[in-house]
């Protein structure tokens, strides 16, 4: 099964590139940039990654990215992830990045975009790995700032495959960002949003109705609302589910209790993703393998999940055709 799951052409739709920062690279970049970390060793870092909820993770996630200062750092971060992903059979990565988390530290959008776009071109050329960029707004900061970031990003609008909404969900409902997302819509930029990870089903409905998103990141709490489930099924809204993330952030206590099998049984358009692989215990293959262990799924279920992601990716039809062929042959 491991060979099959490695061969399967995996498309990753929900990844935060800052969440791919492995402790080893964190230490190397801290040294390169003269940053002092609150950890003495890689083991100490791993021990600190004992999260109780989303906020306890976000605190360390924002702290960890203090080592990212130059375009070269962002390039090295992304290339290190692309190489790992490629080695486990990932064919396409759509990555969120968080400009505001860098702006507040004095690292401008140009630095981030230069490093990431260089890595994206290199991944295509050297690994045959395609990529997409999703510029995310932090929902625990105000909407005016998000609008300002969207305007500052004008030199890069053409390079953005989508805008997203992430960070602390509870108490930060999507509708506060309706004007920002309306501006993105008028610019022709697709929209996605995290909803229903820790937040209630209502946040999922409002992300669809008020932000006009084409995908919901996470969405696992939809099952609490049968009418919403029916709508998500009828409209085949893509849900980017992240099983190891949900386990590590205590959305579920055991993977065996995860809503994924029920979501599939309801006919929802589910995909598997890694979210923040350096913090949650592994990348795409680790997530697929964890589902195999927890749910005992056969090849057809994994084909369906990988197929859903292929159909939902921000890519042209030629690429999709190639991955459909690889899926058949896996
Ligand atoms: O899982 C997440 N949820 C919300 N915001 C995030 N930012 C990075 N990872 C996450
Ligand atoms: Zn996420």
UniProtKB/TrEMBL annotation:
Cofactor remark: Binds 1 zinc ion per subunit.
Ranges for domain Adenosine deaminase: 9-327
GO cellular component: cytosol
Binding of Zn(2+), residues: 14, 16, 194, 275
Pfam families per UniProt: A_deaminase
Entry EC number(s): 3.5.4.2
Residues marked Important for catalytic activity (site): 218
Protein keywords: Hydrolase, Metal-binding, Nucleotide metabolism, Zinc
GO biological process: adenine catabolic process; hypoxanthine salvage; nucleotide metabolic process
EC class: hydrolase
Key word Zinc present: yes
Domain of life: Bacteria
Active site: 197
Catalytic activity annotation: adenine + H2O + H(+) = hypoxanthine + NH4(+)
Molecular functions (GO terms): adenine deaminase activity; zinc ion binding
Obligatory cofactor(s): Zn(2+)
Residues binding substrate, per UniProt: 276
Functional note: Catalyzes the hydrolytic deamination of adenine to hypoxanthine. Plays an important role in the purine salvage pathway and in nitrogen catabolism.
Family: Belongs to the metallo-dependent hydrolases superfamily. Adenosine and AMP deaminases family. Adenine deaminase type 2 subfamily.
Designated name of the protein: Adenine deaminase
Lineage: Bacteria, Pseudomonadati, Pseudomonadota, Gammaproteobacteria, Oceanospirillales
